[in-house]
Write a structure and sequence with these properties.
Layout lengths: L3 H12 L11 H17 L22 H4 L10 H6 L5 H8 L9 H21 L6 H28 L1 H7 L11 H25 L6 H6 L2 H9 L6 H28 L8 H42 L6 H10 L3 H22 L10 H5 L7
Helix pairs in contact: 1-15, 2-12, 2-13, 6-7, 7-8, 7-9, 9-11, 9-13, 12-13, 12-15
Pfam family, one: DUF3080
Protein name: DUF3080 family protein
Length: about 375
């Protein structure tokens, strides 16, 4: 019969899912997994290293650069003569601002909001100043508005994928987090929730729907810059995803060690001393260190996933390079980690039962209570 304490651990692992924190490179967290594997392999007399992969192997190959993620958008033109012939409806001011020397070096956020302002101004000109324009003028503005509407999504995608802050926030990195960082987590959530709302406003403009003054105030250039500032030097999400991938890979390797012994029925090799060491490896390295860490990863990832993945999945007309980013972050790493933890728990259960290793005194009821945090 399965020991009660182990049954609790199995249930805990079956319920678990993943997420993490931004920090500098966290060798302690990586060592926590590698040391567990090394000690487990030694006590089980299992060969190590043959199927282990380096950290860089966990990164996607040929990750697109900012230049590759940037989407070129055709800009409709209007001659000076045509512009001067128009009534003073706001277009001249916008275009003069755009043509200033400093304005020519707009980042993607400023370019997007310039396009938004232009579409709004073009509508206003046609609706409120039609009696002051010729049919040719109205036809020209209608044509320019249609072209601006067609390209507005591309400008938003440049903000989402090619702006320095968003590009770094989503660029994979071989760093693990030290634990859950609520501040970094909240910053990422608020930034991408804002982008999701901005995306809806852009979609309305693209479809020709008018936007209100309240919407423009909510999604102003200033607010967009504030959202970007939340991602400045914030690699939390990409480090979190890598932490989960690293944990999954290390856990799968440890499971293989245990299964190798079980499959070959090597129970006779366990002396009393080895059984004691095996119990300590399970308790001290896996139950007390790895489990709480993975729970923190799970909880953080579940909080942040809806904002980031939701912002990415709602986009259409992506370039192949932009699609590569979406596919990578929508791969279900939390489900994969949960599956690895399930398999690892079952491997332990099989080994302990098969080798008739008694575990009543391995953990106390008080310590068990600290492991019952179930992630929905």
């Amino acid at each position: 019969m399965t020991e009660p304490w182990l049954t609790h651990i199995i249930k805990f692992l079956l319920a678990a899912s993943v997420v993490a924190v931004t920090s500098a490179c966290s060798p302690a967290e990586q060592a926590m997994f590698t040391e567990y594997n090394e000690r487990l392999a030694r006590v089980l007399d299992t060969q190590t290293g043959a199927s282990e992969s380096s950290k860089s192997d966990l990164l996607p190959a040929n990750w697109p650069s900012r230049k590759e993620l940037f989407q070129s958008n055709a800009a409709p033109t209007i001659s000076v003569i045509e512009l001067l012939a128009l009534p003073d409806c706001g277009l001249k001011y916008l275009i003069s601002q755009r043509n200033e020397i400093l304005a020519k070096h707009m980042n993607t956020a400023a370019q997007l909001h310039y396009e938004i302002d232009m579409i709004v101004a073009l509508k206003r000109c046609q609706n409120e100043f039609a009696n002051k324009m010729t049919s040719a003028d109205i036809s020209l503005l209608t044509k320019i508005e249609a072209e601006k509407q067609q390209n507005i999504t591309g400008h938003f995608l440049n903000l989402l994928f090619a702006e320095p802050e968003t590009h770094l926030a989503l660029k994979p990195i071989t760093k693990t987090v030290a634990g859950r960082s609520h501040q970094h987590e909240q910053d990422v959530i608020e930034a991408f929730d804002y982008f999701k709302g901005l995306s809806l406003l852009v979609s309305n403009l693209q479809q020709g729907t008018d936007i209100t003054l309240e919407q423009r105030a909510t999604f102003s250039l200033e607010h967009t810059q504030q959202a970007l500032s939340r991602l400045y030097n914030n690699r939390y999400f990409s480090e979190l995803v890598f932490s989960m991938q690293f944990a999954k890979t290390q856990l799968a390797q440890a499971t293989l060690y245990i299964q190798t012994v079980s499959d070959n029925n090597h129970c006779q090799q366990f002396s009393k001393q080895k059984i004691a060491i095996l119990k300590n490896v399970l308790m001290l390295f896996y139950i007390q260190q790895q489990q709480p860490y993975m729970v923190e990863l799970i909880q953080s990832y579940q909080q942040i996933r809806a904002a980031v993945i939701g912002s990415l999945l709602t986009q259409t007309n992506l370039t192949p390079k932009q699609s590569q980013v979406v596919i990578y972050y929508n791969s279900g790493i939390d489900i994969e980690l949960k599956k690895s933890s399930q398999e690892h728990a079952r491997a332990w259960q099989t080994l302990l039962k098969q080798c008739n290793i008694q575990t009543q005194s391995l953990v106390s009821g008080r310590k068990l209570n600290t492991l019952q945090s179930v992630v929905e």
